[in-house]
Amino acid sequence: MDSLSTGRVAHTLHRLFNEAEQADRALMEQFINVEEPEQLIADTLAEHFAEERRDLRGFYHGYADNFLNVAPEYGRFLYQCVRARKAQRIVEFGTSMGISTIYLATALRDMGGGQLIGTELEAGKAARARANLEAAGLADLVEIRVGDARETLVDVGGAVDLVLLDGAFSLYLPVLKLLEPHLTPGTPILAENAFDHDNEYLAYVRDPANGYLSQSIPISAGRGNEFTVLTR
Asked: Residue 29 has what pLDDT?
């Protein structure tokens, strides 16, 4: 059974991808048709990390109307990972408007249920995500917590079967370490925008001494997607 292609889920995703294209077009165009895109990405990342550390809330408030969403092919991959893991409890760092949340929650629904704990810094985005989940018929599976993930994810209620990191870049490693006591061998950790540029998160998960096996994956090429599995 796959609920992605028909009904309320499919209708909601189609609408949201259209809205996202309009909302994020100007932002995405910054990286199109430039002579040195890799250097632009590196410079942008360095600037983002610095601004996040200076004023996390203020920095991301500037993106309050942007979706910054996963691509459809990556959403389908998320769905597949949940089904393959037979996940019952999922944590998503960086809910935004809820597109990735819908893919994750749909997989839970198609397996009979479960719990998805999302966290979002922007209250306005969280409200829109809740409305979108309601439209897709998935709201009963998802709890979206508003605030800094280092506070909202202190208590996740038990073992976590899958983690999606898609929020503030500089918090990937602190959030992972916060969740580590709740992870078990085989838990997949998926990170979007984990670009290989002075990235302490990648250094940590790619070091076998820390108990992970990790590598970049070509799905949605250029998006810095990292697939990690806990091995200890």
From this structure: 80
d(CA 98, CA 199): 26
Q: Which amino acid makes up residue 103? A: Y
Q: Which residues of the chain have pLDDT under 70?
A: 31-42
Q: What is the pLDDT of residues 7-49, one digit of tens each?
A: 999 999 999 999 999 999 998 887 665 555 556 666 777 787 7
pLDDT for the residue numbered 100: 98
Single-letter amino acid code for the residue at 225:
N
Question: How distant, in Å, are the alpha carbons of 59, 77, 93, 118, 180 from that of 185?
Answer: 35, 20, 20, 22, 11
> Encoding tokens for residue 213?
């096996």
Contact 106, 9 (CB under 8 A): yes
CA angle, residues 129, 132, 135, in degrees to nearest 5:
155
**Considering the domain 7-18+66-230 in this protein, what is its CATH number?**
3.40.50.150
Q: Name the residue among 41, 103, 32 with its Cα closest to residue 70.
A: 103
Predicted local confidence at residue 188, as pLDDT: 98
Q: What is the pLDDT of residue 222?
A: 77
Report how far residue 167's alpha carbon sits from residue 175's, in angstroms, rounded to the nearest whole number.
10
Domains in the chain: boundaries: 7-18+66-230
Name the strand (E) or helix (H) holding 175: helix 172-179
Measured CA to CA, the distance from residue 192 to residue 70 in angstroms comes to: 8
pLDDT value at residue 33: 58
Report yes or no: 45 and 195 within 8 Å, Cβ to Cβ.
yes
8 A C-beta contact, residue 36 and residue 30:
no
